[in-house]
Amino acid sequence: MIEGFVALYIFMLAAFTGYEVISKVPVILHTPLMSGSNFVHGIVLVGTMVALGHAATPLEQLIGFVAVILAAGNAVGGYVVTERMLEMFKTSKGDK
């Protein structure tokens, strides 16, 4: 019982800390920070695939499958945004 409260406390503390850190970042830095953290999305995707591989019941398999789909979408979205951001810094052929 106590372990559950400790885990909930750690989760709440991590959520609060993450919110405070992200809210202090200037708007202009959000996209570069997201592109720099794409590797985290890949790690989350691998973790969800490992968890899905250990699923025992159909409910666990369903939850794991949804987690894999969401993690993959998150990783792909991060790379799409990074690509769009990098396109903004390229010069056009007419601008010399």
Summarize the structure.
With 96 residues, this protein is mainly alpha-helical. The chain has 2 domains: 1-26; 37-96.
Structure description:
It is an enzyme of class 7 (translocase). Keywords: Cell inner membrane, Cell membrane, Membrane, NAD, NADP, Oxidoreductase, Translocase, Transmembrane, Transmembrane helix. It is found in: Cell inner membrane. The chain is mostly helical. The chain has 2 domains: 1-26; 37-96. The chain is built from 4 helices and no strands. Helix 2 (30-36) crosses helix 4 (58-88). The longest helix is centred in the C-terminal third of the chain and has 31 residues, at 58-88. The radius of gyration is 19 Å and the shape is flat. The termini are far apart.
Blueprint (SSEs and pairs):
Layout lengths: L1 H22 L6 H7 L1 H16 L4 H31 L8
Throw out a few tags for this protein.
96 residues, 2 domains, NADP, NAD
Strand content: under 5%
Counted by DSSP, the helix tally is 4
**Amino- and carboxy-terminal Cα gap:** 67 Å
Q: Uncertain regions: pLDDT < 50 for 5+ in a row? A: none
User: How many strand segments?
Assistant: 0
What is the molecular shape? flat
How many domain regions? Answer: 2
Mean of all residue-level pLDDT scores: 82
Main sheet properties: none
Radius of gyration, taken over Cα atoms and rounded to an integer in Å: 19 Å
Helix content: over 70%
- Topology as a string of helices (H) and strands (E): HHHH
Category by helix and strand content: mainly alpha
